[in-house]
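Anyone up for a design puzzle?
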């Protein structure tokens, strides 16, 4: 019997159609990205990218070989860093200039070293660069939100196979985050507790959807998972901003993230995936409502959404906002827990 489940964070309903009985081997394999030619992200090809913004280096100079992690502007940015917003109305419509930031975090000089296979110490360096860029961009009061996201595989939107993450800063807060922020604030105002903390505590007590319960970070399959093997990764204890995460917390995250990626890679045969870092918006941005973020340090909880791209969003999903998931999250968590590394 299919089941409708409600997600209290996004306030949406999901159809869990577990009677379809999809198992890890039932999903298609990852499509390979085109190979051949010169990869602009590989070490030695620094001149083929825009000048770097930041890097982790072994004593070498900027835009030279000898780096471990490298950050560059996207050569074809969705939004541009220069200019003013110039927001104004056009009758019933609104418009503004496409001002923002679009950066690429090249995770490694090794073209074939996936994040799942990288040493924990190297993953830690990548996560610290995420934090460094987030802190820097939040100083710009034009930007209301900064999203860090990774596309792995062609079906997930990657155009280059060299391991990389992207970051886009926007002058508006995305609707998905607005819904999360509102749900978190409403829950806190009613109960004086963090919604995310309540859910994490309940999941840890149940255990049926837990994949990994680390000392400081947890990975679980959400109760109302939209997609097969979707995961939610977050600090076990309340923490509102990824930009404020300590080195110690990021190390614990690196340990857990490596295990998650390895389990997904082995269980699902290296599927395409996206992961997205959801954190608080820029509380210092211009043109925000005075009380908009009054309790945000108490009510919001940063987290990572991890989404293997195993199914397609089709007409029913687009037409209704419902998602149909053929794998119960309890089964997904069990498959991942039982995967031998």
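Challenge accepted. My sequence:
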């Amino acid at each position: 019997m299919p089941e409708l489940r409600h997600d209290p964070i996004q306030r949406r309903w999901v159809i869990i159609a577990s009677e379809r009985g999809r198992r890890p081997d039932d999903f298609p394999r990852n499509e390979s990205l085109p190979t051949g030619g010169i990869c602009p992200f590989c070490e030695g090809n620094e001149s083929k990218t825009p000048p770097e913004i930041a890097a982790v280096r072994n004593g070498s100079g900027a835009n030279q070989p000898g780096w471990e992690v490298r950050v560059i502007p996207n050569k074809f940015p969705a939004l541009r860093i220069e200019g003013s917003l110039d927001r104004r109305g056009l009758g019933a419509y609104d418009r503004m200039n496409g001002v923002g930031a679009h950066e690429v975090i090249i995770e490694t000089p090794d073209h074939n070293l996936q994040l799942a296979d990288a040493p924990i110490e190297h993953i830690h360096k990548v996560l610290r660069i995420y934090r460094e860029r987030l802190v820097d961009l939040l100083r710009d009061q034009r930007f209301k939100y900064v999203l860090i996201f990774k596309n792995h595989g062609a079906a997930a939107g990657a155009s280059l196979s060299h391991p990389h993450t992207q970051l886009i800063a926007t002058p508006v807060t995305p609707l998905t985050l607005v819904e999360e922020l509102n749900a978190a604030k409403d829950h806190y105002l009613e109960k004086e507790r963090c919604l995310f903390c309540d859910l994490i505590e309940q999941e840890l007590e149940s255990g049926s959807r837990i994949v990994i319960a680390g000392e400081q970070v947890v990975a679980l399959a959400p109760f109302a998972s939209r997609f097969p093997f979707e995961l939610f990764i977050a600090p076990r204890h309340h923490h509102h901003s990824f930009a404020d995460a300590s080195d110690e917390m990021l190390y614990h995250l690196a340990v857990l993230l490596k295990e998650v990626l390895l389990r997904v890679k082995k269980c699902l045969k290296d599927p395409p995936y996206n992961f997205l870092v959801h954190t608080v918006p820029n509380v210092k941005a211009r043109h925000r409502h005075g009380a908009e973020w009054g309790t945000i340090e108490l009510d919001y909880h940063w987290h990572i959404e991890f989404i293997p791209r195993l199914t397609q969003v089709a007409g029913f999903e687009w037409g209704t906002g419902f998602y149909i998931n053929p794998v119960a999250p309890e089964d997904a968590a069990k498959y991942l827990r039982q995967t031998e590394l």
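A detail worth pointing out: The chain has a mean pLDDT of 92.
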